[in-house]
Amino acid sequence: MLEFFGKPVYIYPEQQALNDGILMNNPSREFEECSVITTNLWNYLEKKASETSMTEQIELLDVIIRKARKIYVKDKFSGDNDRNFFVIRGNSQFKNVWFVRNEYNNLTAMRPEDY
Fold it and tell me: Which residues 6+ apart lie within 8 Å of 72 measured at CB?
């Protein structure tokens, strides 16, 4: 890749993104392959959880992460999705969540606009 494209113009490492508050360690323990999530996703889940008094944001995240683990473990990817990038499809009530392979060979959970 370096021979074809040359050196990267700019690198934003995960640790810097954690320090800056763009990323956070994944508070869900449902899927070890997903090590970090974007704070934008966490804030979105907080907003969705506040729409009902019966749900907390960690519960919403756990549901998403469990679904991601199921897709990943059972190799049930759709379309051009694979172990490096796949989507938990949303609906009219809930937006899509992306899972993208990161520099530590784990997955980062994010909203599409975070990419």
Answer: 31, 33, 83, 86, 99, 107
In 54-111, DSSP assigns E strands to: 85-88, 97-101, 107-110
- CA–CA separation, 86 vs 89, rounded Å? 9
pLDDT tens for residues 80-100?
999 999 999 999 888 999 999
Q: What is the pLDDT of residues 3-54, one digit of tens each?
A: 877 887 778 889 999 999 999 999 999 999 999 999 999 999 999 999 877 7
Alpha-carbon distance of 46 to 96, in angstroms, equals 15
Which of helix, strand or coil describes residue 30? coil
- Length in residues, the chain: 115
In angstroms, rounded to a whole number, what is the distance separating the alpha carbons of residues 40 and 2? 31
Q: Give the pTM.
A: 0.89
